[in-house]
Amino acid sequence: MVGLALFFLAFSLAVFAKPVSVADDRGVVVTFDAPPQRIISLLPSLTESICALGKCANLVGIDRFSNWPKSIQDLPKLGGMGDINLERIVQLKPDVVLLEKASPVITRLNDLGIKTFVLDVKSMEDEERALKKLDLVLGTSESARVWNQIQQEITRANKQLNIDGKTLRVYFEVNPAPFAAGRSSFIGEIMTRLGLTNIIPKSLGPFPKINPEFVVQSKPDLILLSESTATDIQKRPGWNTIPAVSKNRICTFNAQQNDVLVRPGPRMGEAAFILSQCIQEKMSSSQ
Q: Could you list the residue range(s) of the whole structural domain that residue 124 is in?
């Protein structure tokens, strides 16, 4: 068995026979002499993408919010955006740390001699690009398969949603600040693919903070948000006049569903099914 494992390791390194240089989303060109065998991911969507590309086994540490697939749940948890455990990262001796552009620890990690690779994913196009870059970094060739599966699942979710040609104006609240999913976000793009009309203008960007009065004035037919926020909206001035509220067309998502919905990764097709199913149920029950 040991001999077989060494054979496959040697084979994978042979595929990656010469150094590969890949520009990350900072525009920094990062060179890899061989596919990284010890990877740390500090963002759930990146963790999920690594696993979808078949390299879950190479993860040696993750952020505290990464929780899918189940095979990663016993890995060392290294904190969140504001409290990354740098000492533990050094101890784990990673070949590379994958993280988002907004992470405050990039410079510190580089100063410690730890290689970083940054990906900034807000749209579906960003995710397609990220998968292709990860393919190059990891020495895999799975990005096309993963991307095609996402697209096929979104198409099936669209066919599942029967709204009889109606124009449904939808508001998706990402968190109760409130921040919304704009049309240029991956969530907004999924909603467009489902034939829904997002009340948030594209000009506001992917995840704008909005005035709750804007939602009242926009009169959405459907509101989509997490279970933890559902009770809060009943207290907001004027929201009882919104068609979605008065007709009980509010889709609420549990923690597991919300994880799928707000992560721009390989489960975006599953996110489309979650949206499609809830919207279909709400529209059918309120007719």
A: 16-141
Closest CA to 136 of 56, 53, 218, 259: 53
Are residues 273 and 181 part of one domain? Answer: yes
Residue 166 lies in a domain: yes
Q: Is 193 found in the same domain as 81?
A: no
Phi, then psi, of 241 in degrees rounded to 5: -90, -10
Q: What CATH number does the domain containing 20 carry? A: 3.40.50.1980
Count up the domains in the chain and report the number: 2
> 220: alpha, beta or left, given left = phi > 0 and alpha = psi -120 to 50?
beta
d(CA 131, CA 133): 5
Q: What is the DSSP string of 236-248?
A: STTGGGSHHHHTT
Give the three-class secondary structure for 251.
strand
Residues 109 and 205 in one domain: no
What is the spatial distance between Cα 19 and Cα 242, in angstroms, rounded to a whole number? 57
> Each residue's pLDDT tens digit in the chain (287 positions)?
545 454 445 545 445 568 999 999 999 999 999 999 999 999 999 999 999 999 999 999 999 999 999 999 999 999 999 999 999 999 999 999 999 999 999 999 999 999 999 999 999 999 999 999 999 999 999 999 999 999 999 999 999 998 877 899 999 999 999 999 999 999 999 999 999 999 999 999 999 999 999 999 999 999 999 998 888 888 899 999 999 999 999 999 999 999 999 999 999 999 999 999 999 999 988 66
What is the reported pTM? Answer: 0.92
Q: Note the maximum CA span of the chain.
A: 69
Residues near 86 by beta carbon (within 8 Å), at least 6 away in sequence? 105, 108, 109, 112
